[in-house]
Every structure is written in structure tokens, then in C-alpha cells.
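Lab notebook, bench 4. Still working through the backlog of constructs that have no structural model yet. Next entry is a single chain of 201 residues. Request: give me the C-alpha cells for it.
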Amino acid sequence: MHTRVEPLAGGTLLEAVTARADLSAAFRAVVVLFATVLTIVAAQVSIPLPFTPVPFTLQPMVVLLAGAALGPRLGMTSQMLYLALGIAGLPVFAASPLLPQGAARLIGPTGGYLMSYPFAAFVAGYLAGRGFDRRYLTSVLAMTAGLSVVFAFGVAWLAFGAPHAGLSAAMATGLLPFIPADIVKLLIAATILPSAWRFLR
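Model written out:
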């Protein structure tokens, strides 16, 4: 006889794993730092492309997973910490032959993408906290919403920010070339959290 398994208590995967919503400050700090380190590692997997100043990295996938697993506030905090370390001059951003590490990176061509990470993590975490991460299709929606934030910030900065490329050129160099690969990354990311929920059940 089939018995329907009810979702575990807790809005996010992190709360369910720890089986408590009142996480200690020390534990919050550890998981935020872990997500930040994963973002740094993902930035090092960087492939420069000859037709665009924006490299291919694994960062968007990690940003969305961090937000969805940790929740909106902790996910956003992990990405704010990542940006703070980069602004301080630590070598956490993707390698670039044109721009040095440090605060100047935020006013370069990839600045919009970088500045989007806290907001993208918040959106993915907000939707995950409402159960979007427990099934594959809704997880895809949550990841798509977060990735849309990344592209919106990135393309807008390329078009109207410091590079002033114009909207058409920004879409041609900052959006269209990345859609196929990012769809694949998004679909992979969307399988991870529902699989984790099934394991916990």
C-alpha cells in the first residue's frame, strides 16, 4: 500500500537537515562561509571567450544552489561576503587578462553579473523556502528566476553601465552566447535539491 510522504518540516533544506529553525549564530557563520568558498572555487573554473569580455564560469550555478539550500537571507549573505572579499583585493574573482582583482572589477564588463549574485541568491532562496525546491519542475522555475536576475543585472550593466555597449551589443555578448550552457547548468542544479529532499524523506 502506497503511503504519501509529507515534506519535512522547515522551509529550507538547511533547516530540514539540522531539524531546527533556530540555528545558532556559529552554525550560520559556518554555512555562509562554506557557500562563499564554493563561489570562490567556482570562479576559478573560468573559460575566456574570444567574442565577449564575459568569461564562462560555474558561479551562477553555485550562487543559485547556495540561495536555495541556505534560504534567502543566508544565501544573500554568502554572496555579499564573496563580493566584500573581492573588493578587499583578495583573488576571489575569475581570472581576467584585462582587469586586476579588487574593487575595479565591479566597474568592469562583468560588474553587473557580480553585483547580481546576492539578489539572485535571495530570489532562489525565497522560492525554495516556499517549497519550490522539493520538486524538479518547480525547482527549475526557482533556478530560472534566480538566473534571470543574473542576466538582467549583467546585460543592463554591459548596455548602460561603464562599458556603454548598448542593449543590442550587450545581449549579443552577455546573454545569447551563454543561454545553451546556462540552461544545462540550470537543469543540473535543479535536480540537486529535489534529490536531497527525497533522500531526507
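Notes after review: Residues 43 and 94 are 5 Å apart (CA to CA). The two ends are 17 Å apart (CA to CA). Flag for follow-up if needed.
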